[in-house]
Amino acid sequence: MNVKSLHPWNVSYADAIKLQRELAERVIRQSRLTLDSIRLVAGADVSYSRATNRCYSAVVVLSFPKLEPVCQESAIADATFPYIPGLLSFREIPSLVLAFERLETTPDVVIADGQGIAHPRRLGLASHLGLLLDMPTVGCAKSRLVGKFEQPGQEKGSSTDLMHREELIGAVLRTRTGISPVFVSIGHKIDLPTAVKLVLACSPKFRLPETTRAAHNVVINMMRDNERQQIPNT
Questions:
Q1: pLDDT tens digits along 152-178
Q2: pTM of the full predicted structure?
Q3: Contact 185, 117 (CB under 8 A)
Q4: CATH topology of domain 13-229
Q5: Cα dist. 41→69, 112, 168, 201 in Å?
């Protein structure tokens, strides 16, 4: 896949904040994408090692709506940006970009394990990634970064609005009855109702979408195997 080069990654804290505000203006919050038009959906996940300061990234493409594996790619890169809440995309996306560049199959949409516009400056990892890929992306996070909400009903499919500064920034979605909800937001080139429907369709059995689960499994296995090789013999 081709990935745009929008800016350098070796930036200061102040420059990163400025870039987020500038890039947020480019995020498209509507699209013609519908569930019927989706044939391939991708999951993207990143984990990092505190011991080595490396970021491990994976992209897994599944068929839709059957959610069967199609292909996957992964990458490892040393983190060059510090761990700062609200600026995690500057730390994590460089390795994720490497994985996407190796991907020979182009998905119709990407679900990222992180925030989209549900972010203080409206540019979480999913939105940042969407601009780089120039394709529809959805943020599906396990926890809230900003905003207020009322708990949705306990039944699967129940949802409530996530609001911040009197703006609708996402949905709090129950993907499994009686289990904690996930936080869904627009990444890029998609509207919120479609993003919610997609996450729900990709979560037939578990709290997290199968896309996220598949990418996370690749990342965890890769990190475990790589870190094991770094341990010196005693």
A1: 999 999 999 999 999 999 999 999 999
A2: 0.93
A3: yes
A4: archaeoglobus fulgidus dsm 4304 fold (3.30.2170)
A5: 10, 11, 25, 11
- Residue 50 CA, chain-centre distance (Å), reads 21
Q: How far apart are the first and last CA of the chain?
A: 43
Rounded to an integer, the average pLDDT of 56-74 is 97
Distance CA(213)–CA(215), nearest Å, equals: 6
Return the amino acid letter for 48.
Y
CB-CB neighbours of 128 under 10 Å: 30
Token pair for residue 106? 């182009």
Tokens describing residue 167: 């703006």
Closest CA to 177 of 207, 150, 151: 207
Per the CB < 8 A criterion, the answer to whether 204 and 175 are in contact is: no
Domain locations along the chain: 13-229
